[in-house]
Amino acid sequence: MRNDSRLSRMLHVLIHMDRHAQSATSDTIAKMLNTNPVVVRRTMAGLREQGYVRSEKGHGGGWTLARPLSDISLLDVYKALGEPHLFAIGPADDQPQCLVEQAVNGALADAMKDAEALLLRRLGSVTLKEIADEFEAKLTARSATAYSCAS
Q1: Which of 6, 15, 59, 123 could form a disulfide with 74 if both were Cys (CB 3.0 to 4.6 A apart)?
Q2: Confidence check: pLDDT of 146 > 60
Q3: The CATH number fitting domain 6-146, selected from 3.90.550.10, 1.20.1290.10, 1.10.10.10, 1.20.1070.10
Q4: Each residue of 112-139: pLDDT tens digit?
Q5: How far lies 59's CA from each of 24, 56, 129, in Å?
Q6: CA distance 54 to 44
Q7: Which of 151, 1, 149, 9 is nearest to 78 (CA)?
Q8: What are phi and psi of 109, to 5 degrees?
């Protein structure tokens, strides 16, 4: 199963948006993420529906933050993205009548449920501001010319 990087990518975008005063067009964001502007609009729509970003159409339009980063948690963004699968592993269903498969699936389900609850709690406890502050601290520790992330 392929990794779903939407959460990481949208966190990246939102922090960039906070650093820049002007709005970001879907084209600009698409170039940053090496994807299609339609994908950006579709993904950003979930964030807009939850009130984290807003969009303006037309010349000079684009996406802007609707809330400060301190008011947005990783869990908020995860939920706005439709709560994608957290883990790539899961139960087998090749032999549903097999008692061994049933026992294995039961053990995996319990472990995954516990891991998911722990991860969701952690996502809820971290704001985008904390990540942005960590970036700023690292940037300050280096020279400003070392900042090479496309924006």
Answers
A1: 123
A2: no
A3: 1.10.10.10
A4: 999 999 999 999 999 999 999 999 988 8
A5: 12, 9, 30
A6: 9
A7: 9
A8: -60, -45
